[in-house]
């Protein structure tokens, strides 16, 4: 059911890309995959810097940070791309390339967006709601996670970083249901050792005066 829903949403994005064309769609696909990558990789850094300020969010702190970082970057990048790129310039391409490539990129972007939203729901407290859990299959988290990891690996390979281990570690931190604050070691002073044995001080010895003896001849 969820797989069919994902494909339907991605197909709607593909239809939108078919009508808009390649030049108008490629910033959307680029911003989408980069927003997901930054949302996963920056989340551990934000958690370390924020520290105790995330305590009011409780168990949903990691997920909230990941979702907000992704959303904020996507909105800002889309706004900049629209103002300074797609609204300002117009590039004419062959119709077949413009429509087919635009549909493919929009389909891929819509597929990634849908999987990211489903992954966020699957690891958030929303999954405990009976109405939502009814339509979320048991393997939805792992299935969406694989698509996100593949997208992050693609960005990592294009940037010549190849940090597969860092991606797996970052997505594991972002998907934790509890926020773990860094533990600060507390120095404790050693307690003095108490001995049960009582020490007795020896009595002071009194000096005796020896009387002088007068020897008489």
Write the layout of secondary structure elements.
Blueprint: H1 2-20, H2 22-50, H3 61-86, H4 95-123, H5 130-133, H6 140-158, H7 164-174
Describe it for me?
- By secondary structure, this protein is mainly alpha-helical.
- It has seven helices and no strands.
- It has one domain.
- The termini are far apart.
- About 3% of the residues have low confidence.
Q: Please state the average pLDDT score.
A: 80
The level of helicity is 55-70%
Largest sheet: none
Structural class: mainly alpha
Unreliably modeled segments? 181-186
Number of helices: 7
Oligomeric state of shown chains: single chain
Principal-axis shape equals: globular
Strand and helix order: HHHHHHH
Whole-angstrom Rg: 35 Å
- Could you say how many structural domains there are in total? 1
Share in β-strands: under 5%
